[in-house]
Amino acid sequence: MKQTFVQDIGQQLQSAVLSSGLTTKLICLFCIIGYALSFSPQYVQVLAVIPGRVMPPNFWIWTFLTHSFIELHIWHTIIDIIVVFLYSKMIEPLWGTNELLRFYFIVTIPNAIVATCIYFIFYGLTFHEEYLFERPIYGLAAFLGAFSVVIKQLMPDTVLATTPLFKLKQDQVPLLMVVLSVILWFLRAVPVHFLIMFSSGILISWIYLRFFQPHQNGTIGDTSTTFTFASFFPSPISPIVSVFANTIFEICVKWKLCKSFGKKYNVASSSSITIIIPGPEAADADRRKQKAIKALNDRMKQKEITNENWPELDESHQSSLHAQDHPAQNSSVSIDKTNSNELISTISKDDSNQNFFDTSEQQQQLQSTS
């Protein structure tokens, strides 16, 4: 009996909940508590980021930590919980609990600071005090954007959907979701801080994963060509974005904001040279190689099918080949020794083209055996 799509999603979510760690369950529990507290405007003012109150004399800096647990709509809370559980199921076995939690706060806390600075810029341009006191910053929009970047890192070039006009790949999902967020903002379906936090969450998570994330093998960041900033954009405009991104990267290297990518050579052994390129863990690399291995296996299967469809030889030709092989199979060589008891050795030939020669070494061995 075939399962429905809803049942399949339910089973995946149940598996994610059961396999998740305590940290993930606590984050989801805080999201549920935050949604329950959002019915009180006083709690929203205290837990969400209010740009005018994070500055002196109020200095409510704890809101940079608590704002991610506040949601005003139930469907936002449900999406946040689902994404957190799926993120835990995919990432925690590879990164570990500590790295998972660190990535969560690296994305959410700086993102709130960036959104606060943008609200200050809006206030400086418009002098509307609503950007300082009447527009709270809350939710996990930044983490949703970061999750799309992590999926892109693990499964680059994965085709999600195929249409007659185009193919939707995993590389295009972050940019597509940004465009969708802009459309929802124009339709007044999401507030402006959702668009800001989602976009900056993509950028912050990519910067961390690309340049600063430590790995257990001693490497830092991910230098793979499938994770460049230009790879987030469609192929017609990716070369232009690549030139712009490389220029920014060179400036950051000169200012020592990040390190240039390099290679390590291990020449301790004279017989071989080991080259270590900084990048993600071996488990991440194996995920990327699975597609190539699968494509190679498919090609090999197709080749075997074509070999099976080759025409067979004629029966007359096959009988002539058997006739030629028959005497070769029955041929033998006998060696007589006069100085010892009579010894006859029969050697069968497996191949008609193989020749046997009596050398001095063979005769000595035969004498010793006799």
Structural summary, described in words:
This protein has a domain of 210 residues: Rhomboid-like (Rhomboid-like fold, Up-down Bundle), CATH 1.20.1540.10. The strands form two sheets. The protein has a two-stranded antiparallel sheet. A two-stranded antiparallel ribbon has the order 3-4. The longest helix is centred in the first third of the chain and has 30 residues. 59% of the residues lie in helices and 4% in strands. Helix 2 packs antiparallel against helix 5. It is built from 14 helices and four strands. Strand 3 and strand 4 form a beta hairpin. It is mainly α. The N and C termini lie far apart (75 Å).
Summarize the structure.
This protein has helices spanning 5-19, 22-37, 41-47, 63-66, 74-95, 97-126, 130-133, 141-154, 173-186, 192-212, 238-254, 282-308, 315-330, 360-369; strands spanning 159-162, 167-169, 264-266, 274-276. It has 370 residues and is mainly α. It has a domain at 7-216: Up-down Bundle (Rhomboid-like fold), CATH 1.20.1540.
